[in-house]
Amino acid sequence: MMIPKEMYIADFRDYSYAELIKVRNSLLKDIADFEHEFNDGLSGDGMLTSPSPEVMYQMYNEYLIALTKLINKKFNALVNDDEFVKD
User: Fold this and answer.
1) Domain locations in the chain?
2) Burial level of 67, CB count in 10 A (0-12/13-18/19+)?
């Protein structure tokens, strides 16, 4: 079962920028694995899956979009932090 992107991203709101990068990299690996399996025909062999491959792929990408927006906010907070600014 896939969860709504809002619920997915809520788990990571308090993560640091560095922690979010690790989550993003893990999600990208999940997407790449899914694409590899699908391209090899493992997901398209007529077996019933729930959710469908289309829904899974869409949700993975929705998660990535939401996570990227959160990473951008964390990065901007770092850039605007006085200790991050270099002389």
Assistant:
1) 17-80
2) buried
